[in-house]
Amino acid sequence: MSFPAAGFPAIRPRRLRRSPAVRAIARETSLESRQLVLPMFVREGLTEAVPISSMPGVAQHTMDSLRRAAVEAAEAGVGGVMLFGVPAVRDAIGSGADDPDGILNVATRALVSEVGDALVVQTDLCLDEFTDHGHCGVLAPSTGSGTDPVIDNDATLERYVAMALAQARAGSHLLGLSGMMDGQVAAIRKGLDAEGFTDTLLLGYAAKYASAFYGPFREAVDSQLEGDRRTYQLDPGNRREGVREALIDEAEGADVVMVKPAMSFLDVLREVRDAVQVPVWAYQISGEYAMIEAAAANGWIDRRAAVLESLLSIRRAGADAVLTYWATEAAHWLRER
Ligand code: PBG
User: Fold this and answer.
1) What are the positions of the active site (predicted)?
2) How far apart are CA 63 and CA 49, in angstroms?
3) Axis-axis angle for helices 103-115, 63-76 (nearest 10)
């Protein structure tokens, strides 16, 4: 019998998997620490960091522990940090958001002076941490007839512009527009430019879905929210609508657009990547973090391998950068490799 015998495979893709060296040169997608952004929580009035029980390894920071964690992220080679503030007092319009002495703005100034040369210091721009009702916008005087709250979109835009100016004045390099109000990118860009902040980058949370995986985040920011955000965040069944939102944000002047959550919306991520020209980032959210941590804690999966595979998958689907609570740890792992 001659070799190869009839019927033997002439095409052998396995050749590209034959050794670590061949696999390394054949790998299509790379993961680098500079592509990771670390979300961080800072809570007003804390004297000691408070662990978030549903996110093992993540804490609400004091100003001091925030600075230390940001320095550690910078030293590990992480690309940026995204700051969330948890104020001591909340009200109907989220006054703490645009107060220069509000926790988020104070923390931003501290981080910009500490690590501003090494990291892209980014701030969440949304009212939900600052409102007593926990919604991302201000409520209309009439709450309507149904069970859905009525968010006053255009009144909220005014609050967002005030918040954007406060964050830009605090030195934030990039504002993360996560509130999902119509016209937010255009309104904030115009407001910033009018005050001379033409260099402040805007990240449009274009395709932000109403997801069950935000659960642990609500603990992280002591959320007061009752009900849900389905009148402003996207329905998880909608793919085209996510692409449409990304195109709108790009047209309104977003420097970067976001798809969020990441792992349950990888198809949307791929399509948005193909549809726009600006960088596309994805947010691996609290529930995605909790899910892997819980399985790993039970010994059901290999923690490090699962984390790195999840990040690589998000990159493969089209994310230019990934917001992840594992950013610093993953950056250390990538350095070891
Ligand atoms: C809104 C905001 C949320 C998250 C980031 N920004 C919560 C929400 O929309 O309910 C969630 C992040 C996460 O779950 O890790 N300011």
Assistant:
1) 208 (schiff-base intermediate with substrate), 260 (schiff-base intermediate with substrate)
2) 9
3) 40
- Cβ density class 131-160: b for 16+ within 10 Å, e for less: bebbbbbbbeeeeeeeeebbbbbeebbebb
> What pLDDT score does 87 carry?
97
Q: Which helix (H) or strand (E) holds 174?
A: strand 174-177
Q: Active site includes 190?
A: no
pTM of the model: 0.96
pLDDT in tens, 250-271: 999 999 999 999 999 999 999 9
Q: Residue holding tokens 């600075």?
A: 67
133, 159, 189, 208: the catalytic one is 208
CA distance between the termini of the chain: 46
For the beta carbon of residue 333, count every other beta carbon within 10 angstroms: 17
pLDDT at 135 (0 to 100): 95
**For 196-233, what is the HEC assignment?**
CCCCCEEEEEEEEECCHHHHHHHHHCCCCCCCCCCCCC
Q: Pick the residue whose CA is nearest to atom 6 on ligand 1.
A: 178
Determine what percent of the chain falls in helix, strand and coil, rounding each to the nearest 5.
45, 15, 40
Q: In which residue are the tokens 């923390």 written?
A: 107
Q: Which residue has the tokens 């970067």?
A: 256
Separation CA 323–CA 306 (nearest Å)? 16
Listed in sequence order, the residues at least 6 apart from 191 whose beta carbon sits closer than 8 Å to its beta carbon are 161, 164, 165
Residue 208 annotated among the catalytic residues of the structure: yes
**Cα(216)–Cα(294) distance, rounded to whole angstroms?**
12
37-48 pLDDT tens trace: 999 999 999 999
Query: Among 181, 205, 203, 206, which residue's Cα sits nearest to residue 256?
Result: 203
Domains delineated in the chain: 30-336 (3.20.20.70)
